[in-house]
Specification:
nine-stranded mixed beta sheet, 483 residues, Rossmann fold, single chain, Dihydrodipicolinate Reductase, domain 2, alpha/beta, binds nicotinamide-adenine-dinucleotide, six-stranded parallel beta sheet
C-alpha cells in the first residue's frame, strides 16, 4: 500500500537556520521527499535564511549534498535538479537589519507563508519581532518553533509572551517531532477507532502503563548543549509527556486541534507532583570502548542525568491508582521506543493456582519495526491438564499493511505539510507547554536543592539497577529493552 498524497496549497517556506544541522539532516531532505511524492506544488518556494554569506547557487549545492547524505527519496532523473530550482537563499542577521528586505522580495501575496525557526532558541524572539516590523508576516502567516521551548516555566512563559506580541496562537506551530510519528498518531486510531480497547482503558482494568524511549548513542558532539539540559528537560518534559497525554487523555469529541489539545492539557494538569523516591536519575559511565558521560561533556562534576525513570500518577477518575512508569536514557542496550499497557489479572481463575498468573499486555512499538503486540492467554497445547500460556498477537504494521515504508512521510515531513495545511492538531499549544514545565520545574528544583547526584550506570544495559527497583518494589517488572 502506498500512502495517499493529498495536495497542499502553494507556499513560500522560509527556513531560518537553513544551513544548520537540523535543516540539512531533516527539513530539506524531508521537503525533497514530499516533492518526489508529488505533494509540493510546482511553484512552491523554499528559502534558506541564515547568517552565512552565500548565494543561491552555493546554497543549492549545500542542499544537494545534504540530500545526498541524509535523504532517502526514491527519485527519477532530473527530480533533484527540478527541486533545487525551487530553492533560494538570503543571508539574514536575526539580530540585525541586514537581509530582511531581500528576503521579503521572495514572498508572494497569494501563497501560504511559513517561517521555520530552526535556530537557537535565543533568536526566536528576534526573528518574530523582525518578521513583524519588517513587514514579512501577514495575518495568516505561520511560524514553526523548534524545541527546546523554554528551559523552565518562567522562560517558556516569557517566550510565549514574546511570540504573542507578534503572532496569534493560531499562527504558532510548536514542533514536537514525536507527534509526527506514524505510530504515535496510531495511538489515537487504536484507542478511538476500536470498540475493543476504550472500555478497558482505565484504572479498573489497567494495572500499569510503561513508556520507554531508549537510545544507544551517547551525548556525542552535543555534550555542551545536553549538559545544561539533561534527560528530564530534553526528553521527558516534551516527548514522553506527549506520549503520556495521548495514552491517558479522554476521548476528544472531534479530531480537531483544540479538542485534542484541551484533553491533553487536562491530563498534564491532573498529574500529581512526583516524590523523590519515585524518580531514579542515572549518568552513564565508560564502557564498550566509549568514554563516560563526564568525559564527553568535559565536566567531571556534572550532575546532569543521561537517564531517568519515574513513576507518575494521574489524579482523575479514569486513572487514579494506575501508575505510569516513564523511562528514557542514552547508551542503553537498544534503540527502541514503546508503550506497554499491562492489564489486570482476570478477576477469578477457574483453572486454579497451577495455571499460573497471566495477563493481557498491549505493547505499541514506536520504533523500530512499528507495530503492536497483544499478549493473549491460551491453553498450552498437549495433554496433562489445563496449563495456560501467553502468546502474542503480533502485528508489524509494514507487514500487515504491505506499506511501502519508503513512501510513508517521516515525522518532519508530515508536520511541515500540516503547517502548510494550517492544521495544528499535532503541535503543542502554549498552555500545554507551560503546564508541562509547571509539573517538571519542582522536580528539577528539588534535585538542585538537595544536591542530588545521578547514579552511574554501565552502558549497554537497561540503566541503573535502581530503575528496576522502582517497579520491583511495586511488585512489577519493566518490559525488557530488547535488541
Ligand atoms: P545549528 O547550530 O546547526 O544551526 C544554526 C543555524 O542558525 C545556522 O544555519 C546559522 O547560520 C543560523 N544562525 C545562527 N545565528 C544566526 C543569526 N544571528 N542570524 C541568522 N541565522 C543565524 O543548529 P541546529 O542543530 O540546526 O538546531 C537548530 C534548532 O533546532 C535549535 O533550536 C535546536 O535546539 C533545534 N533542534 C535541533 C535538532 C537537531 O537534530 N539538530 C533536533 C531537535 C531540535
Amino acid at each position: 500500500m502506498v500512502s495517499r498524497v493529498i495536495p497542499v496549497d502553494t507556499f513560500d517556506l522560509v527556513i531560518f537556520g537553513g544551513t544548520g544541522d537540523l535543516a540539512r539532516r531533516k527539513i530539506l531532505p524531508g521537503l525533497f521527499r514530499r516533492y518526489c511524492a508529488g505533494q509540493m506544488p510546482p511553484e512552491a518556494k523554499i528559502i534558506g535564511a541564515a547568517r552565512s554569506e552565500m548565494d543561491a547557487a552555493e546554497f543549492r549545492e549545500m542542499v544537494r549534498e545534504a540530500i545526498g547524505e541524509f535523504g532517502s527519496a526514491p527519485q527519477s532523473a532530473g527530480q533533484l535538479d527540478a527541486f533545487l530550482e525551487r530553492v533560494f537563499y538570503e543571508a539574514v542577521d536575526a539580530k540585525g537589519d541586514g537581509g530582511w528586505d531581500a528576503l521579503k522580495s521572495h514572498l508572494r501575496d497569494d501563497a501560504v507563508r511559513a517561517f521555520y525557526f530552526s535556530v537557537a532558541p535565543s533568536l526566536f524572539g528576534d526573528i518574530a519581532e523582525r518578521l513583524n516590523h519588517k513587514g514579512l508576516s501577514t495575518p495568516d502567516s505561520r511560524i514553526v518553533v523548534e524545541k527546546p521551548f523554554g528551559h523552565d516555566l518562567a522562560s517558556a512563559k516569557a517566550l510565549n509572551a514574546t511570540l504573542a506580541q507578534y503572532f496569534d496562537e493560531t499562527q504558532i506551530y510548536r514542533i514536537d517531532h514525536y507527534l509526527g510519528k506514524e505510530t504515535v498518531q496510531n495511538l489515537m486510531a487504536v484507542r478511538f477507532g476500536n470498540t475493543l480497547f476504550e472500555p478497558l482503558w482505565n484504572a479498573q482494568y489497567v494495572d500499569h502503563i510503561e513508556i520507554t524511549v531508549a537510545e544507544t548513542v551517547g551525548v556525542g558532539g552535543r555534550g555542551a548543549y545536553y549538559d545544561k539540559s539533561g534527560a528530564m528537560r530534553d526528553m521527558v518534559q516534551n516527548h514522553l509527556m506527549q506520549l503520556l497525554c495521548l495514552i491517558a487523555m479522554e476521548p476528544p469529541a472531534k479530531f480537531e486541534p483544540d479538542a485534542v489539545r484541551d484533553e491533553k492539557l487536562k491530563v498534564i494538569r491532573a498529574l500529581d507532583p512526583v516524590e523523590p523516591q519515585d524518580i531514579v536519575r542515572g549518568q552513564y559511565g565508560a564502557g564498550g570502548g566509549e568514554d563516560s558521560y563526564k568525559t564527553h561533556v568535559e565536566n567531571d562534576r556534572s550532575r546532569t542525568e543521561s537517564f531517568i525513570a519515574l513513576k507518575a500518577q494521574i489524579s482523575n477518575w479514569r486513572w487514579a491508582g494506575t501508575p505510569f512508569y516513564l523511562r528514557t536514557g542514552k547508551r542503553l542496550r537498544a534503540r527502541t521506543s514503546d508503550i506497554t499497557v499491562v492489564f489486570k489479572d482476570a478477576p477469578h481463575s477457574i483453572f486454579g493456582a497451577d495455571a499460573g498468573r497471566h495477563r493481557n499486555v498491549l505493547s505499541i512499538r514506536l520504533q523500530p519495526n512499528e507495530g503492536m503486540t497483544l499478549d493473549v492467554t491460551i491453553k498450552e497445547p498437549g495433554p496433562g491438564g489445563m496449563r495456560l500460556i501467553d502468546v502474542p498477537l503480533d502485528m508489524a504494521f509494514a507487514d500487515a499493511l504491505g506499506t511501502d515504508t519508503e513512501a510513508v512521510p517521516d515525522a518532519y515531513e508530515r508536520l511541515i505539510m500540516d503547517v502548510i495545511r494550517g492544521n495544528q492538531t499535532l503541535f503543542m499549544r502554549g498552555d500545554e507547554v507551560e503546564a508541562a514545565w509547571a509539573w517538571t520545574d519542582p522536580i528539577i528544583e528539588g534535585w538542585e536543592a538537595r544536591g542530588d547526584v545521578p547514579v552511574t550506570y554501565d552502558p549497554g544495559g537497561s540503566g541503573p539497577e535502581d530503575a528496576l527497583m522502582l517497579l520491583h518494589r511495586d511488585g512489577r517488572r519493566w518490559r525488557e529493552i530488547k535488541v
